[in-house]
Amino acid sequence: MPDVTADTDHRKLPRRRGEALNAAIYQATMAELAEVGYARMTMESVAERAQASKASLYRRWPSRAELVMETVYRTFPDPTSMPDTGSLRGDSLMVLRQVAEQLAGPVGEALRGLLSDVLRDPVRAKEIRERARGNSVKVMAEIVRRAAVRGECDAAAGTQRRLEAGQALLRHHFLFNGAPVPDEVIVGIVDEVMLPLFTSP
Question: What is the pTM of this model?
Answer without folding.
Answer: 0.80
